[in-house]
Amino acid sequence: MTTLVEDIVQQRFIELFGPEFGHGKPFDLARLRAALHQLGDPQDKLPPVIHVAGTNGKGSTIAFMRAIAEAAGHKVHAFTKPHLLRINERFVLASKAADNERLIDAAERVCAVAPEITQFDAQVAAAFLLFSEMAADAVLLETGMGGRDDSTNVVPAPTLTVLTPIALDHQDALGHTLGEIAAHKAGIFKRGVPAIVARQEDAPRIVIEAQADAIGAPLYRQGVEWDAYASQGRLVVQTETRALDLPLPALFGVHQIENAGLACAALLAPWRHQFSDDAFAEGVGNARWPGRLQPLTRGPLSAPIRALGGEVWVDAGHNAHAAYALARALKQMRAQRGGHNIAIAGLRRRKDALKFIAALAQGIEHLIAVPLPEDHASVHEIAKLGYDLGIDVDTAPSLAAAMQNAAQLSAPRVLICGSFLLAAEALALENA
Hints:
alpha/beta; UDP-N-acetylmuramoyl-L-alanine:D-glutamate ligase; 432 residues; eight-stranded mixed beta sheet
């Protein structure tokens, strides 16, 4: 991948295991299990694991859980995917980002016993090695894709499992219906392990409930055993045994209220640790997660817009479910502060551009289509989708050029969105 930030750890992983397979990677855990056995089965020696699957919101939910746990004085390991600027972001060791030397050493130890496994499997194995060798109070573990056959699902006995909302994404690998996708995601459930589930549409909900019943996983469902909602400028979280009255999340958007509520519900479920109301309040109020409706406020990329009294936001959301959430947030900003909304969007070829743009169109007046550093959908096709939906459209050869185009409009609100690649480019340019 073309990058504006040098990533020597990623380069070393590529040297050892080849490029990272993403979409279309065959599901085969046998080699990973064999590699882990050669490494002493570190997946069996972890602190209590909270395993998180779903379509959108996994990273944000983990960010809230991590912030709450750390506010209570706990040390946390975390493995998330993907990263924005450096692969180190995926590995948190005892509440600190893993350094280059430690990650490269772990990668080389994995390669010594299993040079044939995929890069993502090697990342998972490296994470488990590091997590098993350093003390912490919990492991927050995000699936890479799906759940049932995901590399992270080699953990035999998580303490909790968590499901964020299920939506259409990665259909060629997970199935073409919400029910088929839900079957993959719910594959992280384990007998006797509490499963905390966000609000779902009917089709995935039915599959999730059937899977939990079949294996004997206790369900904690939003809207049934627990709920979370905004009320009078506060976040309210209620379970059958406890109620929390918390500040709204610092992360912007109605969807982040849902993510924060899910994180709280997970940490209120029966497991090893208990948290005070103060820890919940501090964690929810202080959690940060880069590239998720993140404002750009002081760098060169956003400067032309800020000089006009406008504002710039960046979000890595890349499917229709995420686009609906972004449109809702943009409409809220427009209602509160006025102005008009411009989206600068770039998508990968494999994404459903029609559904993404149709959802995003509900919150914008103008669309500027741009290419990605690699594997990008046609900017002219993206622009045509916007034109057919009645939006003012334009194209630009780069993100920087698109920002200059947006600056020709008076006091705009600009959202850069559509791909982790574009979000990473925006953050790199802003911090240059």
